[in-house]
From TrEMBL:
This is Endonuclease/exonuclease/phosphatase domain-containing protein. Residues 25-137 form the Endonuclease/exonuclease/phosphatase domain. It comes from Plakobranchus ocellatus. GO terms for molecular function: catalytic activity. SUPFAM superfamilies: DNase I-like. It comes from the Eukaryota.
Amino acid sequence: MKLGAHYRSFESDAITIQSSDHQCHVICIYRPPRGKKNPSTINDFINDFENLLHELKQSKCPFYIVGDCNIHFDNKSDSDTKRLISLLTEHDMNQLITVPAHRYGHTLDYLITSYSNSLILDHQVFDKAISDHFLIIADIDISKPKQEKRTVTSRNLEQLNTSVLKDMLKNCLSTTTVENADHLNQAMKTAIDHCAPVRTRTISARPISPWFSLEIKKAKRLRRQAERKWRKTKLQVHGDIFTHHRNRVNSIVEEKKKTYYVNQLQGVASCNEFFQVTDCIFGKEKTTALPCTGSDKELCHQFSTFLIKRLKIFVHNWVQNHHPNHMHLF
């Protein structure tokens, strides 16, 4: 979704969430504190916010406004809060966050929706120790596309006991005669199957991250363990430990990404390869434009007809230029 108007008193961005049965808009806004960089008054913000509500209601589908308005919604006696509540009431809107969403105990971050046309089932507020603002999570009644499943087989070679593997191979090779490569392969397969058996499991297909490594995997595991402990004890010291592991994961991922793309760019040998790497960095998907047809069979027929026509033209021109006496054949 693209907002039609530019609002001076706050920053804004909007997205559209669409599924097979529903569609809704999510608008994130941020109203900076008044100062030299933001001379807008509370009157400017109320007017812009009302215009935003009018614009969103014209779309005729549910919408949700989230973000930081820098108005303490928990302070009901504040004049700015009263004006905002009055505006929301006039437009049949409701602000759902009633608990502190900031480190200093105020409700600055909002989740605004309509009383009569809302798909929100539940919402929660979490302190993820990311910033001085808390994380707001909302469950929306929209069917999520099912993740594609695939079956994979693997061996846990990380925990392979090489000493046991060597002993099994020695015993096997000493008791049997290796007549050909097939016998040797079978002996090695039997030993490896015993030390690291094949496991078959079903996993969700996710985008491949070429920079992902075992170092990132271990760091994420430690981060998750630290977060669980902090959630359980609520102690500041465990919160600091979680923050340390979280920052370490972010640092490792950033460094791995940087190294991967630097190596990719250094290996570029042509402009075409350069644009392929930059498209990958910016998330541009490569699409193949094909003619619109009713079926694959019809598309193949169009391609064959086109190629046969071009081939006949090429042969005709070649014979005309090199063997004009044989033109009667065409």
